Prior knowledge:
The complex is a heterotrimer of chains A (about 450), B (about 325) and C (about 290).
Chain A: E1 25-27, E2 33-37, E3 47-48, E4 55-56, E5 61-64, E6 73-74, E7 79-88, E8 94-102, H1 125-134, H2 147-151, E9 161-166, H3 175-182, H4 184-198, E10 202-208, H5 212-221, E11 228-233, H6 242-250, E12 265-269, H7 270-281, E13 288-294, E14 302-307, H8 312-318, E15 326-331, E16 338-340, E17 353-358, H9 375-379, H10 386-394, H11 398-403, H12 414-418, H13 425-442
Parallel strand pairs in A: 1-14, 9-10, 9-12, 10-11, 13-17
Antiparallel strand pairs in A: 2-8, 3-5, 4-7, 5-6, 7-8, 13-14, 15-16, 15-17
Chain B: E1 6-8, H1 20-42, H2 44-68, H3 79-89, H4 97-110, H5 125-136, H6 138-141, E2 144-145, E3 159-160, H7 163-169, H8 174-179, H9 184-189, H10 201-213, H11 220-239, H12 247-252, H13 256-263, H14 274-294, H15 301-318
Antiparallel strand pairs in B: 2-3
Helix pairs in contact in B: 1-2, 1-3, 1-10, 2-3, 2-4, 3-4, 3-5, 4-5, 5-15, 10-13, 11-13, 11-14, 14-15
Chain C: H1 2-28, H2 35-43, H3 57-66, H4 79-90, E1 100-104, E2 117-119, H5 125-131, H6 147-151, E3 157-160, E4 165-168, H7 178-182, E5 188-192, E6 199-202, H8 210-216, H9 226-230, E7 236-239, E8 242-245, H10 255-259, E9 265-268, H11 281-288
Antiparallel strand pairs in C: 1-5, 3-4, 6-9, 7-8
Helix pairs in contact in C: 2-3, 2-4
Amino acid sequence: MTMVKTFPRGGVHPPACKITAESPIRTAPLPPEVIIPLSQHIGAPATPIVKAGDKVLAGQCIAEAGGFVSAPVHSSVSGTVVKVDTFPDVSGYRRPAVQIKVEDDVWVDTVDRTPDLVCASDLTPEEIIASVRSAGVVGMGGATFPLHVKLAVPPGKKAELLLVNAAECEPYLTCDHRVMLEHAAEVAAGVALLVRALQVERAVIGIESNKPDAIAAMSAAVAGRPGISVEPLRVKYPQGGEKQLIKAITGREVPPGGLPVDVGVVPCNVGTALAVYEAVLKHKPLVERIVTVTGPALAEPANWKVRIGTPFSWLVNLSGGMPEDTGKIISGGPMMGKAAPSLEVPVTKGTSGILLLPASQSLRRPASPCIRCGRCVTVCPMGLEPYLLSKLSALSRLDEAEQHHIADCIECGSCSYTCPSARPLLDYIRLGKAVVMKKLRLQGRK
Amino acid sequence: MMKNSLVVAPSPHIHDAASVPHLMRDVVIALMPAFAVSVYRFGWGALYVAAVSVASCMLFEYLIQRFLLHRPSSLNDWSAVVTGLLLAFNVPSNLPPAILVFGALTAIGVGKMTFGGLGNNPFNPALVGRVVLLISFPVQMTTWPVPQGFSTGIFDATTGATALGILKESTGTVQEAMAQMPSYLDMLTGRMGGSMGETAAAALLLGFVYLLVRRVITWHIPVTIMATVAVFTGIFWMADSTQYASPLFHLLSGGLILGAVFMATDYVTSPMTHAGMVVYGIGIGLITVLIRMYGSYPEGMSFAILIMNAMVPLINLYIRPRRFGEEVKRG
Amino acid sequence: MNTILFTVATLTFTGLCAALILYFTSRRFFVEEDSRIDGVQEMLPGANCGGCGAAGCRAFAEQLVGADSMDGLRCPVGGDEVMKNIAAYLGREVQAGVPQVAVVRCNGTCENRPARQHYDGADRCAIAHALFVGAGGCAYGCLGCGDCVAACQFGALSMDAETGLPVVDASRCTACGACVKACPRGIVELRKKFPGNRQIYVSCVSHDKGAVARKICAAACIGCGKCQKTCTFEAITLENNVAWIDSTKCRLCRKCAEACPTHSIVERNFPARRPAPEAKPAAAATVGTPNQA
């Protein structure tokens, strides 16, 4: 019995609810129409290069990166551009997007869509990064940070370790789990490419120990690849938090306001590794991803391989339709996902799951006064005092909140989850953090 | 909420099952073994004290919320029940009802509601009630009935001194005082005089285990208090065992276990961090022993907890959790 | 006897020592301060609302005393009278400002813009704003959590339970601007105060295109520009699909309100219109409803 690693401070244990862990990935049929947002990543939105009436092929670039911290966007289907306009995103706010009417399924001919495994050749790091960049690969764990920016290690810093995040600590979500089971070899190849691109010696794939099958599959897949290993992790939320994962595996702590590379680590999600493999060796841009469609009342919860831009409603209908008593639609997991105002929202590069909660689980308990039990302090993985930050933020005493490190909050939600008085701690902390972060950015010392 | 309309809220979208009423109810459950032993030992007196105390605490909380603060009733959070039970545990089982009701009024009215209700009181309400009664009615509050079960009435029970009282009053050596005292087995099972709920150490410890298993409290406060008392009294005892009682005696006598497990761990009036809890526990342990050895009262647990309650804001100010990444460790 | 003498002597000595220490510390740490600051502070309303831009009345008094002229310094709460008094006290000149009043530019009532979702987060507009478009589906309209009401120190704002929108009590509003800063969507505007609290304004700030805006809210400004054409005083500008009436140019003729196809131009506190022979009665009735507020 080996000791499974974990981060030492804080964390909670929400029920796993991994309903779809045993469901193989299914390829979703094409919807009649897709809406492809131009801002599916952190950074500048992409600039559209198509107009209404243009014919596009699947895999064709429809918008170029709007800057260095940005990523190009490709059409996920073949068809005709209906319009380039603003469409509601998951928050309901209208953002620029391209609407395409689906006609057939014709791909750009450079894309290799065969399932054959291509072996890594003698690509240089520059070639790999260029492929990743032109394929529009972004972090697929949810943060959607353009990957080529992460791979370009800033001068003066040195990456020593690639950390592949396969913890999947969010309840309900199983897309990473299924990817590891069904595409272990491809993921391993992707990891090898990333290792080469970063010119590091070592890569560790961190997997929560409640997925022994995934640990076995990945261990077997990386067996022939020196330097790449698999590390089981204790089941604890937020094990998949970037800083918590680095702490668990390397024992190093990313300094406040710092980046993982400050401690020599470059983290990336397991789905990203698969996307890197497809981008570099199969010449396939990021136009598809695995989405877990789940919920306690859903008739056929499943893991779908879907084209970017597919409406949530299409996937939910494929999974048995929206249950009568649905009270909340969540894009992502229940701890950090965003509640969507409707199902008419497109899947983006960062959509890991669609969770439908029944009405009975949708409303929060009414908040009662803080009893100063200190549980929020105990569970905070960042060593903060959520009860205090929340209060300071609610009173707009943001200078004090800044002194108490409100900017360190990773918004994991452990405090709100655990509060016996059901106080909306994170709501207020997030509010104050946004203001403080804006101020820090203006001061130019992010 | 409108029919069929979707809910939109910031994350997280799920919540732990534990709530304030749950936690308070668990405390009540944890108190039950000790209460059962008290009823067995003190008979009708224990039942009467608990009933009057809980009922009057709930009544006062309701009345104050309703007519003075004009707020919705907070009875459903069970905190008044806990306060009532703890107050009952801290008084002799033959206390005249008027005094007990006055104690409940002090506990809820002065100890809790004056500060704005649950969550805002700096001092443990039950202890505020108890200490005010102890100072105002010293005779009634220290007339301890001898455990006789249901064989006598409430107010005509035979009375005697507590173990700590005997120790304080005795002029000879500890061994002479010990001769008049209950055995350690009696102390564990509550066969001695004392406040209604403090006597049965074993039953109280059973409650402690329950609270730990249910994750209502952590071990930090009770264990540090007991360890501090044991170490501190142990040093004196080893230095001169004819003058000072043994650590085991100190642990099992008086309200030490009741205080350490149920009173000092009150969420509202204890520190936020585990490190702070340890400091708080050590403080309570030290003050308790100092009062027991040098103070004019035989027992110092209540005072020690109240004094450390006052220190809690200071502890929270100086003992903070360590910020993640503060000192970069190269592993 | 000796005991008494000793006690008296030691107490006197201790008292003297303490007095000396107090005397020297107060001398040592004495802060030189313009005495006029206290005088000016006395004249200010003392609400510490921050409407002047300073952190509070004391800070504003310091600014006033320290400044060379009264330009740009104005207490919106005290208004002209207070500023005149202060100017006289400091021996300076002051120009009269234009009295203003806060106006809520959203008419997304429960009927005009029915709720599509139920917001279940902490009851703060700023939090809801950062999260999503709002239950009404409008990305620019009122969220109804009452951040402006909470910000008002003068009790001039209240939520109308029926419409779900905040209502300004013009008699209490001091135009301090706290609500303007509090609103995350910039709906509240300080406008010129007209006699009898009459007010005519575009009660919508939606930048959405006409068709989109109209679909979301029945009372949305669709940016058609009809009001602009009717206005004879060039008071109306059209930008980002939304019209805006410049209250300093407006003469309250009310022609624009008649022209507005969605009735997004609201008139308040006007006497009832004379029944014009050709005016549509239904339209007049709808326009007239906000008068009761």
